[in-house]
C-alpha cells in the first residue's frame, strides 16, 4: 500500500515546481510501476509454491493441448486442425471453434524463448502465461486510469488490480485460460480508446482496432467491448459531447475492428450477423448522422439550418422507422432472436435456467451471492461509489466512460459469477480514483494546516496552483489534439467545436473546484485519522488479497489437499486415473464420462472422449446424460452404439469431495430429459427432494450413475456411509450386469468401468432348477437382475 | 550348454504351436473330447466316431465321471471340441462342471450335446445356457402318430421320421439328404427371438411331446413344428454347438436302418441319419461355412498409400478379401451380397461390393459431405456361415482453409464493388485534400 501513497504524494509535486522534481516523480512512478508488475506476477505464484507447476482445472488442459499441437505442427495445421479424439464420432474442428489468442500468445512466447536458446517446456510457458499477463494488465490499468484521472490514480488502480482476488482467481500460475490474456486485452483496448478520445489521433485509433483484434482473438467477452464503447459514444452524443475526437475514436474502431474480427475463424461472419454486434453498427450510423448535422450546421446559416432540420427529421424518421421495422422482423424471424444463449442469459438472468440447462448447470454461470462480492473485490466494493462520485468531479469524456464501464459491469457480474472478472478492473479503476482523490484531499488538508507551512499566502498559492494544475490538466488534454492535428483540413470546425464544448465547462469547473477546495480543507486531526483509516483499509485489502491468493484460489483442482489432525492429505486421484487410462487402454478406445472431465481425459490420458467441456452439441451431451440416468441395460446399449469402451465416474462419497458426479447428477437428468423426454426429473426425486438414501426412488437407485458410483461402496466401511450427502446409501448390495469395474483410484474419487462385450450366447428361457448353485460366472452372464442373489 | 539352451528356446518357440492347434489359420478342430456314460457307446455309435476319425479328428474317449476329467491345463485348453454323449450324467468328474463347459464354448470351442429321455438337469442346463430349452417334463418323448417310422415295431410311435431340414448348404452340405432322418428322443424348443439358434431338423406338425406310457391328461406344452429335433447354435465368437434330444440319432442302429415313413410309399434302404450327422458334424467342427475377411484396405483414388484421414468429398477405393475354409485350405468366397458401410452413428454410404471371384471384394465411392470419425464396416451375417464383423476407424476432415475456391465467379460484382470503392475513396481524398 506504500506505493500508491507515495505516488499520490508525488503527483501534486509533479506539477508544482521545477523539471527536476518532475523527473524525480517520473522515475519514481516508473519504479513503482515496475514493482507493481513484480507484485502482480509474484502474488500468483502461490500455486506453484504450494502445489507444483501444473496446469489447473478443466479448460486450461484443453488450451494446453492446443498449444502443444501448435508448437508441434505449426500455425497452419493448428488453423485447420480437425480433432478426431473428442466428441466422438462427430469430431471437432478446433481451428474454427477456438479463440486462438491465448494459444498463439503462449506459442509465440515459447517460440521466442526457444529461438533464444532458452529451452522451456510448453507446459512451463503455459503455466506462467497468466501471471505475466496480469503484470501487463496492471500496467494497462495504470495507463487507462492515468488517462482518466492522472498518474496518481493510475498507480493506485494498478496496485489494486495487481492483487484483486477476482482476477487472481482466473490468473494464478497454471490457470491457463482465455481470461488470462483477455483481461489485459480488455483493459488495453479501453486504454487505447480513451487515449484516442483524449488525443483524437488516428494512430491510436488504429492501435485501438488492433488491440480490439487481439481481444477478439482471445475471448468471447469481446462483445462487452463492442457494446460498451458504442454505449459510451451514444452517451457522449446524447449529452452534447460530440467532437471529432469522438468520431476518430469510434469510426475506425468499428470499420477496422469488424474487418479484423471477421478474420478470426471462430467469429467470422458473426461479426456482422449476430445481434451482439448490431449496437455498434447502429451507433456507427448515428455518429455519422450527427457528424453530418454538425457539418451542415457549420456551413449553413442558423435559419437555413432550422429548415433543413425539419426537412431531414421528417424524412429521416420515416426511413428510420422502415429500417427498424425490417431489422426487427429479421431478428424476430430467427428462433433465438439472433442472440446466442449465453448472451441472452446476460440480459434475462432467468433465461438460461429456463431454457438451457447446459448453461445453467455450470457453476460459474450462476448469479453470485453477496459474500462472493466481498470475497472477490473486498474493500473495493465500498470504494467504488466514492470513485464514481470522483469521476463526476469533473465529468470528462474519459471519466464518463469509467462510470459507464462500472455500471454495466456491476449489472453483468450480478448475472453471472464469471463476469465478476470484468467487474474487477472497473472496480479497481474507480477505487483507485477514489483512493487517490481521498489521499489527495487529506494530504492537502494536512499540508494546509501544518504549523510550519500554513501561512495564508502560501496556502492560497498552493491552492490556486493545484487548481490551475487541474485546470491545466484538462486544458492539456484539450490542447493536445490541437497540436497533433495542425495540418488537418478540418481544423477550423474543430476549433469551433472545442470552443463550444470545452470552454464553458472548463470555466465552470474551475469555479466549482475552487469553492470545493475550501470546503475540503478538513481539520488536521480528522484528516490524519482518516488517512490512517484509509491506510488500514488498504492494508486490510492487501492482507485479504494475499490470503485469497494463497489459500482460496491456488488449488489446481486436479490435486486436492485436506488438513486433518494427522496432517496434510493429498488426493491425487485424477492423475492416477488418467495415467491408468493412458497405460492400460488401447489408443483408440473411447471413454465416456460427464463432460466436465472431457478436456482432462483427452489432454492427460490421450483417449477419445464422447463429450467435453466445449459444450457445442447439446444432443450429444444429452445422450451421455441419458445413458447415465438410464438403467444399466439401456445405458449399455447407448454407450455401445457410441463405441464406448470405458465409463469414468467421479465419486466423492468416500472422502467427502463435494463436486462429484452424484451431485451433478440432476443436471445430467435435466439435460438428458431436455432431448429425450422419457427421462423425467420427478422420477429421480422423492417429494421434490434429491436423495440417495433408503428413501430414494427406484429409478434413482437403478440408474447407471448410482450403480457406478456406489458399486462395492459398502465394502469400505460396512455401512456405506456417504460423506458428501451425509447419509447411508439406499441400496448397498448389488451387482453390475453390463459393466466391469476395472479401476478405482486410491481414494475412490475416480472409478473406471469397462463395458462388458455383448453376450456370446443368448440363454434359453427355462428357469434354472435348484441344482444350479454358485456358478457366479454364469449368473453374471444371465443379465437379469431378478436372479441376483444379493437382492 | 549352448546347444542345450538353443534347444530350449526352440522348444519354447514351438510351444504356442503345440498348444494352439485351433488357430485362425486352420480353424478345423483337431482334438475332440468325447464324454460317454459307458464305453459301450463306443461300439454302438462306432460308425459316427469312425467317420470323425477318418476326417482326421483325434477323439479322446472318457467316462463322464472320470475323476481326471479336465478341459484345460495351465490355462490352455487341451481340446478343440467336446462331444457330450452322456445324457444321464448328474455330475461330471474332475474339474468339469457346467461353468467349465460354458467357458469352453465362450472361448471359441465347439460342442455336440446329445440328450435322451434320461437327460439329467446338468445336460438340460448346458442346453439352456446355449439357448435351447428341453421339455421340462422329464418323462416326455416326441411322439408322432402320422410320420413315425414304419420299421419301428413298438406302437408308441416314438421313433419318428423327419425330413424338415433347414435350407442351408453351409450347414448340411450341398448333397441333398434324400432319406428322412430317424429320431427317437426328447423334444426341445428354441426362442424365436434368439437369432443365434437355428432349428436344423424340425418335427412334423403332427408331433407332440408327452409321456408315451401315461395317458395324456392335459394338452402337451410342445407340439407340432415348434418342436425342434436338432438345433445348432453359432455363438457370437463363432463357436458352434449342436444340440439334439436323441442320442440314438448317432447310433449305428439308426444309421443302418431302412426307413419308410408312415403313409408314404417311398422306402429307403438306409435312413438319412448317416449323411445328416456327418454333414452337421462337419459344420460344427468348422470344416464348412467358416469365413475370414482379411486385408481391409482403402485408398484415395490415384494414390497408393493408405491415408490416415480423408477429406470430405474425396473419392476412395475400398477393398477386402474374404475366404472360406474348406477343411484343408482357404478358398475364395464368392457372393454378390457383401456390403460395406461408411458409418458414423448411421451408415452414410452403403455399397454392395463387387468381387473378382478370387476372394477380393472392392467398391469405390465418394466420401459424404459430412466430417467426423467414420468407420468402414463390413457386417456379413449369413445363415450357416461364420459372421464377419470388421470395422476400421477413419476420420474425415473438412476442407482446409486453402482448399476452397479462391475466386468465385458469381462474386465478381462484389470484387468490382470493393475495388471501385477503394479507387473512389482514393480519388475523393485527393480531390478533397488538394482541390482548394
UniProtKB/TrEMBL annotation, chain A:
Gene3D superfamilies the record matches: 3.40.50.12610
Cofactor needs: Mg(2+); Mn(2+)
Basic residues bias spans: 760-771
UniProt feature, compositional bias: Low complexity: 772-781
Leading EC class: transferase
Family: Belongs to the STT3 family.
Subunit architecture: Component of the oligosaccharyltransferase (OST) complex.
Name of the protein in its database record: dolichyl-diphosphooligosaccharide--protein glycotransferase
UniProt source species: Hibiscus trionum
UniProtKB/TrEMBL annotation, chain B:
Major subcellular site: endoplasmic reticulum
Span of domain OST48 N-terminal: 31-284
Cellular component GO terms held in the UniProt record: oligosaccharyltransferase complex
Localization terms from the record: Endoplasmic reticulum membrane; Membrane
Keywords: Endoplasmic reticulum, Membrane, Signal, Transmembrane, Transmembrane helix
Domain (OST48 middle): residue spans on this chain: 298-436
Protein function: Subunit of the oligosaccharyl transferase (OST) complex that catalyzes the initial transfer of a defined glycan (Glc(3)Man(9)GlcNAc(2) in eukaryotes) from the lipid carrier dolichol-pyrophosphate to an asparagine residue within an Asn-X-Ser/Thr consensus motif in nascent polypeptide chains, the first step in protein N-glycosylation. N-glycosylation occurs cotranslationally and the complex associates with the Sec61 complex at the channel-forming translocon complex that mediates protein translocation across the endoplasmic reticulum (ER).
Family designation: Belongs to the DDOST 48 kDa subunit family.
Protein name as it appears in the record: Dolichyl-diphosphooligosaccharide--protein glycosyltransferase 48 kDa subunit
Amino acid at each position: 500500500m506504500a506505493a500508491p501513497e507515495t505516488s499520490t504524494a508525488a503527483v501534486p509535486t509533479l506539477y508544482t515546481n521545477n523539471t527536476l522534481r518532475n523527473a524525480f516523480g517520473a522515475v519514481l512512478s516508473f519504479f513503482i510501476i515496475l514493482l507493481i508488475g513484480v507484485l502482480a506476477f509474484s502474488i500468483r505464484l502461490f500455486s506453484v509454491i504450494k502445489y507444483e507447476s501444473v496446469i489447473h482445472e478443466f479448460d486450461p488442459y484443453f488450451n494446453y493441448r492446443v498449444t502443444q499441437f501448435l508448437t508441434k505442427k505449426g500455425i497452419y495445421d493448428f488453423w485447420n486442425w480437425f480433432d478426431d479424439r473428442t466428441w466422438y464420432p462427430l469430431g471437432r474442428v478446433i481451428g474454427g471453434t477456438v479463440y486462438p489468442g491465448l494459444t498463439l500468445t503462449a506459442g509465440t512466447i515459447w517460440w521466442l524463448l526457444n529461438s533464444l536458446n532458452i529451452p522451456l517446456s510448453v507446459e512451463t510457458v503455459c503455466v506462467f502465461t497468466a501471471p505475466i499477463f496480469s503484470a501487463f494488465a496492471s500496467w494497462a490499468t495504470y495507463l487507462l486510469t492515468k488517462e482518466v484521472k492522472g498518474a496518481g490514480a493510475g498507480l493506485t488502480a494498478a496496485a489494486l488490480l495487481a492483487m484483486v482476488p477476482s482476477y487472481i482467481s482466473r490468473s494464478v500460475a497454471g490457470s491457463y485460460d482465455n481470461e488470462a490474456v483477455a483481461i489485459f486485452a480488455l483493459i488495453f483496448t479501453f486504454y487505447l480508446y480513451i487515449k484516442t478520445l483524449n488525443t483524437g489521433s488516428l494512430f491510436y485509433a488504429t492501435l485501438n482496432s488492433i488491440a480490439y483484434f487481439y481481444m477478439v482473438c482471445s475471448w468471447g467477452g469481446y462483445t462487452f467491448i463492442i457494446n460498451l464503447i458504442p454505449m459510451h459514444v451514444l452517451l457522449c452524443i446524447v449529452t452534447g459531447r460530440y467532437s471529432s475526437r469522438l468520431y476518430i475514436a469510434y469510426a475506425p474502431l468499428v470499420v477496422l475492428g469488424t474487418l479484423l474480427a471477421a478474420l478470426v475463424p471462430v467469429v467470422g461472419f458473426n461479426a456482422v450477423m449476430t445481434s451482439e454486434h448490431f449496437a455498434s453498427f447502429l451507433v456507427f450510423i448515428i455518429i455519422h448522422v450527427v457528424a453530418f448535422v454538425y457539418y451542415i450546421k457549420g456551413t449553413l446559416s442558423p435559419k437555413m439550418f432550422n429548415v433543413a432540420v425539419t426537412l431531414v427529421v421528417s424524412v429521416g424518421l420515416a426511413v428510420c422507422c422502415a429500417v427498424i421495422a425490417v431489422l426487427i422482423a429479421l431478428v424476430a424471424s430467427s428462433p433465438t432472436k439472433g442472440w446466442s444463449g449465453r448472451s441472452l442469459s446476460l440480459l434475462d438472468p432467468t433465461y438460461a435456467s429456463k431454457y438451457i440447462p447446459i448453461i445453467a448447470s455450470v457453476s460459474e454461470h450462476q448469479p453470485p451471492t453477496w459474500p462472493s462480492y466481498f470475497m472477490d473485490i473486498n474493500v473495493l466494493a465500498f470504494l467504488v461509489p466514492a470513485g464514481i462520485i470522483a469521476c463526476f468531479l469533473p465529468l470528462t469524456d474519459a471519466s464518463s466512460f469509467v462510470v459507464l464501464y462500472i455500471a454495466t459491469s456491476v449489472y453483468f457480474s450480478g448475472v453471472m459469477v464469471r463476469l465478476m472478472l470484468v467487474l474487477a478492473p472497473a472496480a479497481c479503476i474507480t477505487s483507485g480514483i477514489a483512493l487517490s482523490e481521498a489521499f489527495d484531499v487529506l494530504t492537502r488538508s494536512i499540508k494546509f494546516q501544518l504549523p510550519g507551512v500554513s501561512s495564508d499566502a502560501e496556502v492560497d498559492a498552493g491552492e490556486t496552483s493545484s487548481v490551475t494544475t487541474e485546470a491545466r490538466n484538462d486544458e492539456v488534454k484539450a490542447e493536445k489534439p490541437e497540436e497533433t492535428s495542425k495540418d488537418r483540413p478540418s481544423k477550423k470546425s474543430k476549433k469551433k467545436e472545442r470552443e463550444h464544448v470545452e470552454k464553458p465547462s472548463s470555466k465552470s469547473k474551475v469555479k466549482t473546484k475552487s469553492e470545493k477546495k475550501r470546503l475540503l480543507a478538513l481539520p488536521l486531526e480528522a484528516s490524519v485519522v482518516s488517512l490512517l483509516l484509509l491506510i488500514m483499509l488498504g492494508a486490510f485489502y492487501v492482507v485479504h488479497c494475499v490470503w485469497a491468493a494463497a489459500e482460496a484460489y491456488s488449488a489446481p483442482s486436479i490435486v486436492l489437499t485436506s488438513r486433518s489432525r494427522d496432517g496434510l492429505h493429498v488426493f491425487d486421484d485424477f492423475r492416477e486415473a488418467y495415467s491408468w487410462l493412458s497405460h492400460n487402454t488401447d489408443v483408440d478406445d473411447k471413454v465416456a464420462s460427464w463432460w466436465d472431465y472431457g478436456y482432462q481425459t483427452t489432454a492427460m490420458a490421450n483417449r477419445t472422449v464422447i463429450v467435453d467441456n466445449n459444450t457445442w452439441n447439446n444432443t450429444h451431451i444429452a445422450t451421455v446424460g441419458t445413458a447415465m440416468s438410464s438403467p444399466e441395460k439401456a445405458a449399455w446399449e447407448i454407450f455401445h452404439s457410441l463405441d464406448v469402451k470405458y465409463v469414468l465416474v467421479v465419486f466423492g462419497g468416500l472422502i467427502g469431495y463435494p463436486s462429484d458426479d452424484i451431485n451433478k447428477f440432476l443436471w445430467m437428468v435435466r439435460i438428458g430429459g431436455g432431448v429425450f423426454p422419457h427421462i423425467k426429473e420427478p422420477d429421480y426425486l422423492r417429494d421434490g427432494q434429491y436423495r440417495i438414501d433408503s428413501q430414494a426412488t427406484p429409478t434413482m437407485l437403478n440408474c447407471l450413475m448410482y450403480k457406478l458410483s456406489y458399486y462395492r461402496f459398502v465394502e469400505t466401511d460396512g455401512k456405506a456411509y456417504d460423506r458428501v450427502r451425509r447419509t447411508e446409501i439406499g441400496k448397498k448390495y448389488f451387482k453390475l450386469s453390463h459393466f466391469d469395474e476395472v479401476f478405482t483410484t486410491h481414494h475412490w474419487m475416480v472409478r473406471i468401468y469397462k463395458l462388458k462385450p455383448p453376450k456370446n450366447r443368448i440363454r434359453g428361457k427355462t428357469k434354472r432348477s435348484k441344482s444350479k448353485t454358485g456358478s457366479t460366472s454364469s449368473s453374471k452372464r444371465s443379465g437379469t437382475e431378478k436372479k441376483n442373489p444379493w437382492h | 550348454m549352448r546347444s542345450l539352451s538353443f534347444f530350449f528356446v526352440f522348444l519354447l518357440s514351438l510351444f504356442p504351436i503345440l498348444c494352439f492347434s485351433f488357430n485362425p489359420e486352420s480353424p478345423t478342430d483337431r482334438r475332440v473330447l468325447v464324454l460317454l456314460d459307458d464305453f459301450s457307446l463306443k461300439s454302438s455309435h462306432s460308425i459316427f466316431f469312425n467317420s470323425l476319425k477318418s476326417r482326421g479328428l483325434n477323439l479322446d474317449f472318457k467316462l463322464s465321471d472320470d475323476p481326471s476329467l479336465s478341459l484345460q491345463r495351465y490355462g490352455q485348453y487341451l481340446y478343440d471340441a467336446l462331444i457330450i454323449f452322456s445324457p444321464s450324467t448328474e455330475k461330471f468328474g474332475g474339474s468339469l462342471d457346467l461353468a467349465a463347459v460354458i467357458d469352453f464354448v465362450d472361448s471359441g470351442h465347439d460342442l455336440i450335446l446329445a440328450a435322451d429321455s434320461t437327460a439329467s438337469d446338468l445336460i438340460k442346463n448346458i442346453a439352456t445356457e446355449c439357448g435351447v430349452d428341453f421339455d421340462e417334463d422329464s418323462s416326455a418323448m416326441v411322439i408322432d402318430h402320422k410320420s413315425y417310422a414304419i420299421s419301428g415295431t413298438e406302437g408308441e410311435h416314438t421313433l419318428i421320421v423327419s425330413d424338415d431340414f433347414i435350407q442351408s448348404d453351409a450347414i448340411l452340405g450341398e448333397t441333398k439328404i434324400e432319406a428322412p432322418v430317424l429320431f427317437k428322443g426328447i423334444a426341445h424348443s428354441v426362442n424365436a427371438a434368439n437369432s443365434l439358434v437355428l432349428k436344423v431338423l424340425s418335427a412334423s406338425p403332427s408331433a407332440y411331446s408327452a409321456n408315451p406310457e401315461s395317458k395324456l391328461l392335459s394338452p402337451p406344452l410342445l407340439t407340432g413344428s415348434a418342436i425342434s429335433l436338432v438345433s445348432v447354435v453359432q455363438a457370437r465368437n463363432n463357436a458352434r454347438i449342436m444340440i439334439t434330444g436323441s442320442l440314438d440319432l448317432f447310433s449305428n442302429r439308426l444309421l443302418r436302418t431302412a426307413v419308410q415313413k408312415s403313409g408314404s410309399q417311398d422306402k429307403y434302404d438306409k435312413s438319412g441319419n448317416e449323411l445328416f450327422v456327418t454333414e452337421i458334424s462337419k459344420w460344427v467342427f468348422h470344416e464348412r461355412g467358416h469365413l475370414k475377411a482379411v486385408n481391409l484396405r482403402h485408398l484415395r483414388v490415384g494414390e497408393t498409400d493408405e491415408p490416415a484421414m480423408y477429406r470430405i468429398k474425396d473419392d476412395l477405393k475400398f477393398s477386402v478379401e474374404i475366404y472360406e475354409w474348406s477343411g484343408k485350405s482357404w478358398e475364395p468366397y464368392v457372393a454378390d451380397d457383401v456390403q460395406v458401410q461408411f458409418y458414423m452413428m448411421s451408415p452414410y454410404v452403403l455399397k454392395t461390393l463387387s468381387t473378382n471371384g478370387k476372394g477380393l471384394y472392392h467398391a469405390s465411392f465418394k466420401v459424404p459431405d459430412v466430417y467426423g470419425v467414420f468407420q468402414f464396416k463390413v457386417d456379413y451375417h449369413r445363415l450357416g456361415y461364420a459372421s464377419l464383423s470388421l470395422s476400421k476407424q477413419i476420420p474425415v476432415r473438412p476442407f482446409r482453409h486453402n482448399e476452397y475456391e479462391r475466386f468465385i465467379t458469381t462474386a465478381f460484382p462484389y470484387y468490382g464493388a470493393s475495388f471501385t470503392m477503394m479507387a473512389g475513396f482514393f480519388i475523393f481524398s485527393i480531390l478533397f485534400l488538394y482541390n482548394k
